[in-house]
């Protein structure tokens, strides 16, 4: 009978640990817990684009926090992915400004082009589509975010063009 080795416990690289120290230095020593948001962001980038429970536990241990404090933050903000996402994470803002300016059409156009619904990933793993609350770009609504980039003043046609350009990149 073969045994399956347990998954390795997540741990930051030395480079990431240096970034954690840089993040910590932005806050008073007695307020290090305030660094949780950027440290979770770093963990997400370091551990494959999403936060597993093990990676959240690692962050909690690293920061000396109760794991529940980390879970509360990670589950509240849509910027943290709690399951694996595709190479291109398309987040369509559907809050009031974007909705009034046509985000429903943007979402439908992207769904149709990718043949997935919100919360799904394409079969090839290239795209994950999410509906999100305000991304803070109301002045240029409607918009979506793909990974770290904002695309604003969208129409259904420009949204699909952006998706097609990303799909055609190797």
Q: What is the structure about, briefly put?
A:
By secondary structure, the chain is α+β, with helices and mostly antiparallel strands. It is built from seven helices and five strands; from the N terminus they run ααααβααββββα. Helix 6 (103-114) packs parallel to helix 7.
Give your account of this protein's structure:
Belongs to the complex I 24 kDa subunit family. One of its GO terms (molecular function) is inorganic cation transmembrane transporter activity. This is NADH dehydrogenase subunit E. One of its GO terms (biological process) is inorganic cation transmembrane transport. It catalyses: a quinone + NADH + 5 H(+)(in) = a quinol + NAD(+) + 4 H(+)(out). The structure is a single chain. The chain is α+β, with helices and mostly antiparallel strands and 170 residues long. It has two domains: 14-76, Orthogonal Bundle (Arc Repressor Mutant, subunit A), CATH 1.10.10; 88-169, Glutaredoxin. Helix content is 43%, strand content 12%. The protein has seven helices and five strands, in the order ααααβααββββα. The protein has helices at residues 14-24, 36-46, 53-63, 67-76, 96-100, 103-114, 156-168, and strands at residues 88-93, 120-121, 127-132, 144-146, 149-151. It has a five-stranded mixed β-sheet, with helices on one face. The chain is elongated. The N and C termini lie far apart (42 Å).
Features:
five-stranded mixed β-sheet; elongated; 170 residues; Glutaredoxin; alpha+beta; Arc Repressor Mutant, subunit A
